[in-house]
Amino acid sequence: MATHDNTEHVSDAPDEAVGWESKLQYFLNSDFVRSAPYWGIPFVLMSIAVYGGIGYNFAISFTDYEGLGTPDYSALDLEMYAQALSSDAFIAAAQNNLVLLVGFTTICLVLGLFLAILLDHGIRFSEKFQTVYLLPMSLSFVVTAQLWLWMFNVESGILNLVVTTLGFNPVDWLGNPSIALGAVIFALIWQFSGYTMVVYLAGLQSIPDDQFEAARVDGASITRTYLRIIVPQLKEASVSAAVVLMVFALKAFTFLYALVGRYRPPNGTDILATLMVRRAFKFGEWAYSAAIATMLLVMALGVIGPYLYYQYKQGSL
Fold it and tell me: Model pTM?
């Protein structure tokens, strides 16, 4: 018993001997503090530019700020949020955002998976095929918009050249509100389906060939092999690609602005970003636009948040 007491006394001695001066010196000599000049300055600048801007936007969304004056913070309320949620223009823009988000992302994933499976089977000219589909991804929204503005031209566009050749009347792709959003989604799918193709192709090529051979020996068809064995293993690739595509869908403002060169996009294609910019810079309704921006931020976090949680559960964060 006496020996046990002496052992505890000896093991506790080093902790008691380390004073706060030694701990402070150890902290100051740590890699975290010594590397602070390299990561600290960019972190502070980014915090001011990004999170400071978000905080300022959030603050003025509770005011009635408009025009060339200064915001009045003496009477904060949720009037702008209530006004936006009761506005038909806001609801229509939110619905277009949702259709763009779901339609564009889903079709891109399905088309990209289909193209990746074709390439994984080693079709002829697969390298050229891959380059052709991936090339649009390298283009900016501005270039893509101008290209498709020409393609959608009612009188001289290639699409209407095909339509009239088949015996149909020319289609006003961007002037008809009922099909304008579909035309925009089609152009964005053309640009980003190559990206999903590459993501899925990398996932397919990481799967051992033994699984294909085992399925073939068991008599499984190619379709059953992909649906039951291969595609479920592409879950991480699907999640990553879906998040990137949804972020691009939320950033479609650049494409729409470049398409027409003004704050008002073609009828039927108004989204929250174009509505926000138009109300801010055309009508000077800063508080109302800030409320829309805040709700758009919440929508973006609704996309990114589950992905970050998924990565955290997988141990990647």
Answer: 0.77
